[in-house]
Amino acid sequence: MAKYLVQIILVGVQVVGRAFTRALRQEFAASRATADARGQARSQSAAASRISGISLQEAQQILNVSKLSPEEIQKNYDHLFKVNDKSVGGSFYLQSKVVRAKERLDEELRIEAQTQSAKEQGQKPET
């Protein structure tokens, strides 16, 4: 009787050990994918800053937005673009800065959406 009890315990420990190992491997793979996505997003963001000639922080300051909300960005862009229109006494230079800031923030939103979709695809359970 004791022999069978020991065998049942050993089989149970093996099953739990295999399940734990599999879960650990999946967690490492998910962590690695997330880290790769973050690294790619940072490099894309830095590349966007180099291409546009304006940093993300500067673009946020120009359009007076604290977080990347498409509605807030569009609202502030429309207002600042109209205010700086040359026909109403505004400055073409400032209007140009507003356009560049919006382009930079739109690019950052695109990068975030791309990163989010990659993250969601990477976290789907394996079947």
From TrEMBL:
<dbReference type="InterPro" id="IPR036869">
    <property type="entry name" value="J_dom_sf"/>
</dbReference>
<dbReference type="InterPro" id="IPR005341">
    <property type="entry name" value="Tim16"/>
</dbReference>
<keyword id="KW-0653">Protein transport</keyword>
<keyword id="KW-0472">Membrane</keyword>
<keyword id="KW-0999">Mitochondrion inner membrane</keyword>
<dbReference type="GO" id="GO:0030150">
    <property type="term" value="P:protein import into mitochondrial matrix"/>
</dbReference>
<keyword id="KW-0496">Mitochondrion</keyword>
<dbReference type="Pfam" id="PF03656">
    <property type="entry name" value="Pam16"/>
</dbReference>
<protein>
    <submittedName>
        <fullName>Presequence translocase associated motor 16</fullName>
    </submittedName>
</protein>
<comment type="similarity">
    <text>Belongs to the TIM16/PAM16 family.</text>
</comment>
<keyword id="KW-0813">Transport</keyword>
<dbReference type="GO" id="GO:0001405">
    <property type="term" value="C:PAM complex, Tim23 associated import motor"/>
</dbReference>
<keyword id="KW-0811">Translocation</keyword>
